[in-house]
Structures are given as C-alpha cells and as structure tokens.
Amino acid sequence: MHVVIFNSRYWDRTLEAFYRELNSKKSKSLGFEAFKLPNDYSHLRNALTASLTKSLTLVGSFRNLEDPTSRPDEELLDLFRHSICPRLWILFFDLHHTPEDLILGKKTKLGNDFEVPGPDHFSEYNFFDMLAWPYEFFDPQILDLVNYKIPSEEIEHSLFAIAQAAETHKRLIDEFPHRMEFYHCIGRNELKQSFSLVPNFMKFDICIPGAPYITRRIAREFFSQRGFSVMRSDFGLAFLNLFLRLSNWICQLLMLPPESRWKLKSLIKFRYQTFQTGFCRFTWVDGSYLNYPVRKFIEVPLSGSIVLTGDSSVLRALGFLNDFNYRVLKLNNPNQISLRSMKMESSQIESSFKDLRRTIWEQHGAETRVAQLKTFLEKFCAPSDT
Questions:
Q1: pTM for the full model?
Q2: In this structure, how many other beta carbons lie within 10 angstroms of the beta carbon of residue 256?
Q3: Nearest 5°: phi and psi at 173?
Q4: Distance (Å, whole) CA 352 – CA 355
Q5: Is the CB of residue 238 less than 8 Å from the CB of residue 250?
Q6: What phi, psi does 44 have (nearest 5°)?
C-alpha cells in the first residue's frame, strides 16, 4: 500500500483534485490510500497497522493544521522518522522561503525590513528519500524595471526574494538526488467546464487576473499603452464580494466546519476567475518574476481565452510551447504585437477547444499525476519486493 498523507494549511484546488483522485476506485486498485490530517488520524493508524506499507508520502508540512503557531506534529514526525519504506515529500509551496519553513509549513517574513530567517534546522526534519515538486526547471526572470514606475523598495524586495528562492532551490537539489517533476493538476469536475458563450463583440481584448505582481502590473501598462481594451482588475468584484459574504453567512448559519467553508470560498473565487477570463479574448498569465508554473496556465484556456505569457520556459516545461492556445509575448519588444492579427487568431480558438481540453487532461489531469506518482514510487519499492 502506498500511503499519501495530506497535511497542508494552504489547501488549494490542486490538492483537492489530487486528493479526490487518490480516493477513486482506480487509484485504490493501484494500491494508493490517501489520508487528510488531522481528521483521518485514526483511519491512518488502522491502515498502517493492518497493511504492508510500500511507501510514505507527505503532501504539505509537519506543522499542525489547527494551530499554525504550534510545534511540528510529533506523531507525524515519528511516523516518517522511523519508517523503513521509501519516503516522498510533495512540495507545492513557493520557493522564496527557507527549506525549514517549507517543511514546517511556516512563512519567513519578506517585508520591507527584509527580516533575515533564523537558524535553518532543515536536516532535523528531513526524513525523506525523494522530492516531487514543480520547480525542476526553476528560471526566475531578471527584469529591466528602469522604464516602469516601480517603487525602489519593491525592486529591492524582488531581488531579495529571487536570491532567497535561488538559494532554496539549490539546497533542495543538493539534498534530494531523487526528484520528479510534479506540476499542478485539474480534477474531472473542472474538465466539464464549458467554453465561454460570450460573443466576441462583447469581449475585452485582455484580462490580467490574480495577485498584482510586478510583472502583471507591467503587462497591464504595456497593453493599455498600445490600444488594447484591458479588463479592470475589479470587473465583477462587487458580485464576488456579495457571494463571499453570503457564503460566509450560510456557513455560519449551518455551522459548517472550516474545510467546507474553504471549499465553498475556493469555488466562488474560481468561478469569478472563469467569469473574468470568459469575457476576454486573451489572458495574461505569469508566475511573477520568480516564473513559477502557476495553475492559471492550466485553468485559463478551459474558459476559451488564449494565454499570453512573457517567457517560454514555463510553457516548454508544461508541454504547451507549440500549442495554438498559448502565446509567448516579450514585453520589451513592442513591434512583435499586432492587435488586429491577434483578434483574428482568437476567433479560431473555439474550433480547437475539444482538442485542448483532451490535451490538458492527458498531461495535467489528476489521474495523470497519480499514474506518474505510481511509476516514480515503484522504482524505489521494487528492490524491497524481491
């Protein structure tokens, strides 16, 4: 039995899709058992007692979910510390934290005062033999910010974060010679999302959803200066806030547990993003100056919007470099862009939507991630089975 333990304070749609797929009949037939802590602790103990464990996988960190200020979960630590089977750590957290912060599930402060992280005791908590993460081809962007109105403290903060992320990336590569690429994934329910029915004459040229990273603010300025109709970042925000307030009131009225509240809130935010991108011919997507392979690269095209991004390395890693629904656009080369030709291209996307949906599921569906995990783990479990 391959045991996968979810213990993450930063529960997102990728973890939800992956957890659901691991609990499907097909995954169970492959020998997987998934447990979400702290709710499944008793089931986890029973399973470990009753069955032969081939591998142990931790998705998240060792810190207790209910109290992020507490010490690491000692029972979970002991489980991995004393295990004799192969142990895998699946890491989705951002790299601009120390390895110790990542494994313990806490955040290093990266404010204007640039607080220096405390002593790093990563080796005390690293009981893993393997690492799965989406940063095998980590390639941060060195931005030319001179021509943009970026405050000097933000530039300094960016350089600090890049240096921290590069150091963490190097240390984790040195710590783990056995690694696998493990990108975000989508669930079956997300694949059923329908193509946007908004007619082209009602659409904006481009939207730039998500947190206001420096790179996204630069992109907004770039497109606005060149005559593109750029969707306001607060387009539909009043409806989002209304639905969030209503969901919070309903959750309190029904006394729903925190997990149910998160799921409802996450669904509303996801639908809001889908609503925004469905109103646009193009969507600018990037993983900040750190060039993270964010989930939007997989989510956005399903709404019928073509993805524009400033760097080809992420598209190459995700397998989308030559896909019709993705475009690389260098913001420092304005001559390459033609609004008219881009609008003509966007009118052709609906004909390729079915092929796109199949491609995304085959490459980045939760079922594919489970199969990849199975293949990777079997390499390490095979010697002990003979």
A1: 0.85
A2: 15
A3: -65, -40
A4: 5
A5: no
A6: -65, -45
Q: Which amino acid is at 326?
A: Y
Tell me how far apart the alpha carbons of residues 341 and 344 are, in angstroms, rounded to a whole number. Answer: 5
Residue 181 φ then ψ, to 5°: -70, 130
Angle at the Cα of 288 from the Cα atoms of 10 and 161, rounded to 5 degrees: 80
The span from the first CA to the last CA of the chain, in angstroms, equals 16
Contact (CB, 8 A) for 60 and 8: yes
Give residue-wise pLDDT tens across range 67-100. 555 667 788 889 999 988 999 999 988 888 888 8
Give the integer Cα–Cα distance in Å for 142 and 155. 11
Q: Where are the beta strands (DSSP E) in 108-253?
A: 130-133, 179-181, 204-207
Task: Please tell me the distance from the alpha carbon of residue 93 to that of residue 295, in angstroms, as a whole number.
Answer: 13
Supply the DSSP symbol for 66.
S
**pLDDT per position as a tens digit, 311-356:** 888 888 888 877 777 888 877 665 556 655 666 566 666 556 677 8
Q: Where are the domains of the chain?
A: 2-186+366-385, 191-351
CB 18 within 8 A of CB 369: yes
In the numeric block, the tokens 């409806």 are attached to 239
Phi, psi of 144 (to 5 degrees): -95, 100
> What type of residue is 358?
R
| Type of residue at 266 | S
Decide: 331 and 222 in contact? Cβ < 8 Å: yes
Q: How far is 242 from 340, CA to CA, in rounded Å?
A: 37
Tokens 């593109």 identify what position? 228
d(CA 54, CA 32): 10
> Closest Cα partner for 148 from 158, 137, 139?
158
Which residue is it, tokens 């029915």? 197
Q: What's the rounded Cα separation, in Å, for the pair 238 and 70?
A: 37
The answer to whether 312 and 321 have CB atoms below 8 angstroms apart is yes
